[in-house]
Specification:
34% helix; 124 residues; single chain; two-stranded antiparallel ribbon; 4-stranded mixed sheet; alpha+beta; globular
């Protein structure tokens, strides 16, 4: 949404810093769980290098916060400007979205790449 706000989303994706220790990672997950617990039932899932903390209502995921290990980065992350959080540059986000498109092929992945190209932020 930082680069192109064209659709609503109910999740946040993040990457672990290479310097984050296992203890720090567990602390971050605990803070996320504690923060979200006031809003409903939680489920934590893990697969491959991803941890997902999901907020459920009536058995349906209404929000998820996913954190993954980063295997590569094209450009250094940049300050968001409105918070102390670092954001990926557009090339890294598009590269991650292309990986998701190939690996899972969800309709939103196709729509996201189409929207980025249509807005002329990237070309096919």
């Amino acid at each position: 949404m930082h680069y192109l706000d064209y659709r609503t989303t109910h999740d946040a994706d993040a990457w672990w810093s290479q310097s984050a220790t296992e203890k720090e990672r567990l602390q971050v997950i605990e803070v996320l769980r504690d923060t979200l617990a006031d809003h409903g039932q939680l489920r934590t899932r893990q697969w491959r290098d991803v941890t997902s903390i999901e907020l459920l209502r009536d058995g349906h995921v209404i929000f998820s916060f996913q954190i993954a290990d980063r295997s590569a980065q094209l450009e250094p992350s940049i300050p968001a400007g409105w918070t102390s959080v670092l954001l990926d540059g557009l090339p890294d986000l598009v590269a991650s979205k292309m990986v998701a498109l190939v690996e899972r092929g969800a309709p939103r992945d196709f729509r996201d790449i189409f929207a980025v190209c249509r807005s002329e932020l990237m070309t096919p």
